[in-house]
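Hypothesis: this fold can be encoded by more than one sequence.
Test: take the structure tokens below, design a sequence, compare later.
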């Protein structure tokens, strides 16, 4: 979730003014490498700053940003090591646990990732880091086939962030996996209401509506029955989704 990276970039301008100001130019240059996705140079530059840094806040953010750089290189082992060090320097910064949990998930250490996200919820059950924890716990549960648990995490997230269109979309997908097609369609409706250009939501909702018709044994619904579903499928196509072509051909064009 890039909003956490952005928060760090904004806050550091202030925090460094109280730290080792003589390293500000080097640090800013390293940040630019990271922002421009030149991850190898970013790792080298943050390492050079760390070799000279004595201020704990400066070291903490160097470890965090170098971890982001390692992530960009798919070097998750070193990224996790750097985030461990950042947390040692500031164990109360829950955003670092979020970043470490995400990195562990990238490294397929799902148990480690869950541990970090569940720890966050012991410290923050209503704030921004709690939202991130519920979001990623929902994704992990889904990836493990625990669709009911995934839905529960998204329920919690939506209590905190009722305008999060992606959370509605993800919950809709999970509901579809437990054959709650009607509930799934309702969540896709909400996702589209919040994000009228949500291409994937239009596509999935159209497919779900077709599935709701065919699940009752009507393998070739009449055109008037599929009109609503087809409108959504065609909207997804208009927005750039070519994966719906077959569904449009079978259920919308051939009648």
């Amino acid at each position: 979730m890039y909003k956490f990276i952005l928060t760090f970039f904004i806050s550091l301008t202030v925090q460094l003014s109280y730290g080792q100001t003589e390293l500000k130019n080097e640090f800013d240059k390293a940040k630019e490498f990271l922002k421009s996705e030149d991850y190898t140079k970013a790792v080298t530059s943050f390492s050079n700053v760390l070799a000279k840094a004595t201020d704990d806040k400066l070291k903490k953010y160097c470890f965090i940003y170098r971890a982001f750089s390692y992530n960009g290189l798919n070097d998750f082992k070193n990224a996790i090591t750097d985030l461990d060090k950042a947390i040692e320097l500031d164990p109360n910064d829950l955003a670092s646990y979020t970043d470490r949990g995400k990195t562990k998930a990238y490294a397929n250490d799902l148990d480690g990732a869950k541990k970090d996200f569940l720890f966050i919820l012991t410290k923050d059950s209503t704030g921004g880091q709690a939202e991130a924890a519920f979001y990623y716990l929902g994704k992990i549960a889904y990836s493990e086939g625990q669709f009911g648990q995934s839905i529960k995490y998204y329920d919690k997230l939506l209590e905190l962030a009722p305008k999060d269109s992606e959370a509605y979309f993800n919950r809709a997908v999970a509901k579809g996996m437990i054959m709650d097609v009607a509930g799934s369609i309702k969540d896709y409706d909400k996702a589209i209401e919040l994000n009228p250009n949500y291409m994937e939501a239009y596509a999935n909702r159209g497919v779900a509506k077709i599935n709701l018709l065919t699940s009752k044994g009507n393998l070739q619904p009449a055109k008037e029955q599929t009109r609503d579903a087809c409108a959504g499928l065609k909207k997804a196509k208009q927005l750039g989704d070519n994966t719906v072509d077959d569904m449009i051909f079978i259920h919308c064009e051939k009648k």
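Residues 1-103 form a domain with the Serine Threonine Protein Phosphatase 5, Tetratricopeptide repeat fold (CATH 1.25.40.10). The chain has 14 helices and no strands.
Hypothesis status: open.
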